[in-house]
Amino acid sequence: MQRGIVISKNHKDILVKHAKRNIPNESCAILFGKMENDNFTVKDVFLTKNIEESSVNFTISNDELIKGYAEAEKRKLDVVGIFHSHPNSGAHPSMTDKKFMEINPVPWIIFSNENEEMKAYLYESKIIEINLAII
Ligand SMILES: [Zn+2]
To answer: Is the pTM of this model over 0.90?
Structure first.
């Protein structure tokens, strides 16, 4: 079976709104959910601040990362993904993204404000695009 990540239309809309609100900068979020049989399901989104305030990079503060992981644990969910947006380019990982994807091998969802595409990627010895299902 092809690997993939499932997200509800509602959670997708929250992420897209977050991306639009943060223009001209990249936006970011932590995705909570469950992993079953190599498939990921997003159950909630934890919106975070891009402390770099950059249009080409993002960084989530250590404080928010700690808060996010604690919140996931409290809700008995796992961190199943990282979301960020690209205000001025397509929904594919940048060189910097690729570097961080290797360090953080959970699904990465990227939204492009440029063409409104949303795609998911995962690092598994190399970076692959995985199926993104919106239900
Ligand atoms: Zn990026």
So the answer is: yes
CA 65 – ligand 1 centroid, Å? 18
Spatial contact of 107 and 132, defined as CB atoms under 8 Å apart: no
84: CA distance to ligand 1 center in Å?
A: 6
- Distance (angstroms) between ligand 1 centre and the Cα of 111 equals 9
Q: Domains in the chain: how many in total?
A: 1
Domain that holds residue 112: 4-134
CA 92 / ligand 1 centre spacing (Å): 7
Angstrom distances, CA of residue 95 to CA of 101, 110, 127: 10, 14, 11
H or E element in which residue 99 lies = helix 95-103
- How many angstroms is it from 3 CA to the middle of ligand 1? 21
pLDDT per residue rounded down to tens, the chain (135 residues): 578 999 999 999 999 999 999 999 999 999 999 998 889 999 999 999 999 999 999 999 999 999 999 999 999 999 999 999 999 999 999 999 999 999 999 999 999 999 999 999 999 999 999 999 999
Write the CATH number for 77: 3.40.140.10
